[in-house]
Amino acid sequence: YSCETGAATNIIYGLALGYKSVIIPITLISIVVYIDFSVAGMYGVALGALGMLGTLSICLTIDVYGPVCDNAGGIAEMAGMEEDVRNKTDALDAAGNTTAAIGKGFAIGSAALVSLALFGGFVTRLGLENIQVLRPIVFAGLFMGAMLPYWFTAMTMKSVGLAASEMVKEVKHQFDTITGLREGEVEPDYEKCIKISTDASLREMVLPGLLVIASPILCGTFFGVEALSGMLVGALTSGVQLAISQSNTGGAWDN
Fold it and tell me: Does residue 129 or residue 67 have the better pLDDT?
């Protein structure tokens, strides 16, 4: 219904669906962590992460299904095939978005358990028996860690926008300078467009990568291990929920 009433309602309903989709996965992850830790401590959590990683082959398989259907729809449209062919590929594309969301959910869940197991190893290595959450330095670290996924997301989304802007400018430039391109008499320069995408994908990930690498080093160096522990926990709890909501929001919008 929201798709029939305009872009604004579509965006609102997509965001709402993404936020709502966090409830069940996070609840299940919480139950798994509680049971695993109660039975076998951090070793149990690590085994739970290993169990989810055991489905990696299936996750990769269903992840590939979406792009294949998407490409099939694009080929059908560019080839000028009948409308019923495009309708079929649209239905397959919607199913592909669903399978991609499922695969991403498995990846996010296993990443959450692996991160928790690594955090347990970090705390054990330092010899910290417990961390007082109500200590100001730990609480501040929690807030800073919860902010980091949003900072990372903002940087990557801005990078996508810049790359898309460069692509639009290049396409417009080719239409204006290549004679016969609008009439379909000559082929466009695909290599320049591909170069824009590949260069941007490498160049624009430098700063987000530095953020992930440098933030724990700087936090631990200047504020100590307790602040770093709080930051890691905050980033884990915030990042998992943000990843699930964004994944399912994007799939809903695409459908």
Answer: 67
